[in-house]
Amino acid sequence: MPDSHTFAPKTVTIESGETVIWTNESDIQHTVTAYGDEVPNDAAYFASGGFGSERAARNRISEGLIAPGEAYEHQFDRPGTYGYYCIPHESSGMVGTVRVE
Questions:
Q1: What pTM did the predictor assign?
Q2: What is the average pLDDT value for the chain, to the nearest integer?
């Protein structure tokens, strides 16, 4: 069983147009929340809960929680490097990166 405070893999490299699916395989709730300053300028912001900004995601965390066994997905249409994290477990190092080529 993976560590419940880790994205696995921590870094993933995909082609533009592909979709990443995050599935919560732990027994606690998590979020997938992009760092607003780690999304390329011409790319769409992403966060579980469908928020349009990091501030909105942080302000309404309960709406973005992914329950155990549930999933969140996002299609990446622009090349670049995207940093993201889990709001409740960011301080535990639950961060990740999507590289889009």
A1: 0.94
A2: 96
